[in-house]
Design goal:
Layout: E1 12-15, E2 22-25, H1 35-48, E3 50-53, H2 60-68, E4 82-83, E5 86-93, E6 124-133, E7 141-145, H3 146-151, H4 155-161, E8 165-168, H5 170-177, H6 185-190, E9 194-197, E10 199-201, E11 208-210, E12 216-219, H7 224-237, E13 244-247, E14 254-258, E15 262-266, E16 277-284
Parallel strand pairs: 2-3
Antiparallel strand pairs: 1-2, 3-14, 4-5, 5-16, 6-14, 6-16, 7-13, 7-15, 8-9, 8-12, 10-11
The protein binds fe (ii) ion.
Residues 110, 114, 116, 264 line the site of fe (ii) ion.
Length: 289
């Protein structure tokens, strides 16, 4: 997409890398974000894929209100993560009742490259995450551009996957990566595996993106082991250091990203000595095509 000329935004825009990510300054997210400003935020979000807002005090209810500008907010099936009083917020914390690190990582699935909500029929649109407590080292969030991932595949790969569909399954990724606190029968029943195109077309920019990540389990019509190997190979091919933004958190920052054209992951930290508390809203988007 064409860059918007400098000065054409109702806030300050500072690109974070040559290809993706921008910091947006001058917006009070806890206040009312009017339609003119939100339309500009949305335009910047489509252009840069990841928007970073500098540290500010953002109460949980105001975070949900901001997320609602993007669309319908998901109530996550893993209800043990719901924030007190705000089921729209998925809160990841390793702090005990006295605010001390408890030694347990709350969701190890977040450490692998994935896209939020790909295990649903209607997948994740924006994810809007706020850093309440951030560790001194580790606990970063990394983003990889899936437009670029698709563009850089050679023509043989593009032809091979053009009409391929992948099965996405939360129980598969959760059990495989987290290994504790398994899904309940009710949670499993609510999230049957779904399939999506491996190459999706972004409904707003019209650009093609690779759409896999860690929730992708198998390929429709392909023997299981062969599909697993193909997904692992493509997930590895999808991440290019020069098409990645690595964010080191400062307390009170907020990031909004587009799940349709990015993979993301968190990096490890020591949950026995460092605190990390983040809360996020994921907005529901559309059925991928
Ligand atoms: Fe995520």
């Amino acid at each position: 997409m064409n860059a918007t000329p400098a000065g054409d935004w109702p806030f300050e825009v500072r690109p974070l890398t040559p290809t993706l990510g921008a910091e947006i300054s001058g917006v009070d997210l806890a206040g009312e974000v009017d339609d003119v400003v939100f339309r500009a935020i949305y335009r910047a979000w489509l252009q840069y894929q990841v928007l970073l807002f500098p540290p500010q005090d953002l109460p949980p209810g105001r975070q949900v209100a901001f997320a609602r500008h993007f669309g319908q907010v998901q109530i996550h099936v893993m209800n043990q993560y719901h924030a007190d009083g705000f089921p729209e917020l998925y809160r990841l914390s390793n702090l005990d009742g006295r605010g001390r690190p408890n030694g347990r990582h709350p969701d190890k699935g977040t450490l692998e490259w994935h896209t939020d909500g790909s295990w649903q029929h209607v997948t994740g649109h924006a994810t809007i995450i706020y850093g309440e407590v951030v560790p001194e080292t580790g606990g970063e969030t990394h983003f990889a551009d899936m437009y670029g991932a698709y563009d850089r595949l050679d023509s043989a790969w593009k032809a091979r996957i053009a009409t391929m569909r992948a099965v996405h399954n939360l129980d598969f990724s959760r059990t495989r990566r987290h290994g504790e606190d398994p899904m309940t029968d009710e949670q499993r029943r609510a999230t049957p595996p779904v399939d999506h195109p491996v190459v999706r077309t972004h409904p707003e920019t019209g650009r093609k993106c690779l759409y896999l990540g860690d929730h992708a389990e198998s390929i429709v019509g392909m023997p299981y082991a062969e599909g697993r190997a193909l997904i692992e190979e493509l997930n590895a091919l999808a991440v290019h250091p020069d098409l990645t933004y690595e964010h080191r958190w400062t307390t009170g920052e907020l990031i909004a990203w587009d799940n349709r054209c990015l993979l993301h992951r968190a990096t490890a930290y020591d949950p026995a000595t460092q605190g990390r508390v983040v809360r996020r809203c994921t907005v529901l988007g559309e059925v991928p095509a």
